[in-house]
Amino acid sequence: MKVLVAALLALGLPLGAAAEPVGLCYNYGCTVQTEVEVSRAQLDAIGRDMLKARDAESERRFLAEAVARLYRIAGTQTPIWRDKGGNSEDDAVEGRMDCIDHSTNTTHFIELLAGRGWLRYHTLLPRQMRRRGLIFDHWTAAIEDGNGEKFAVDSWFFDYGETPAVIPFEDWLDGRDPEARHRVAEAVQEQMERQVKQ
């Protein structure tokens, strides 16, 4: 089946419907739920890149870029292009996304890729949560490779359309993220301060 998909993509032949609907939510806590459409041409371009992966490590890199591309596509149809990393810089802005929105959307995007046979070295997992203290939960999309190693796929740290962090799950659970450490610390502190004041 994978060979057939690769052959169809290489020939530029359609793989299905003209556009694929994907669930999307925003405005914190998935308050607004909608669908966006990804065109056949957009999907085929993403698929060609995903099929370049030759091992789990390279697939994670292609997956991160595919997720970023899908967010950018969604931003042409919804106000999520206003989203900023964390929860402090876009508070009350239409289109803002918290970690619940991001983890849900990223999971939907990975489901789309997996459903087309483009996730060959990983399995999509249910969304995962970590807790810091008594009041701060943080959610992420997650994948697992063939050796059973789990990875967080977390787009919440970054501004709209940027490539998400794909990091070992244990590091993510411990709050370690070398790509966005300072922003994570600031966002966590601001979130905790707001929750304490309420």
Automatic annotation (TrEMBL):
Keywords: Signal. Residues 1-19 form the signal peptide. This is Transglutaminase-like domain-containing protein.
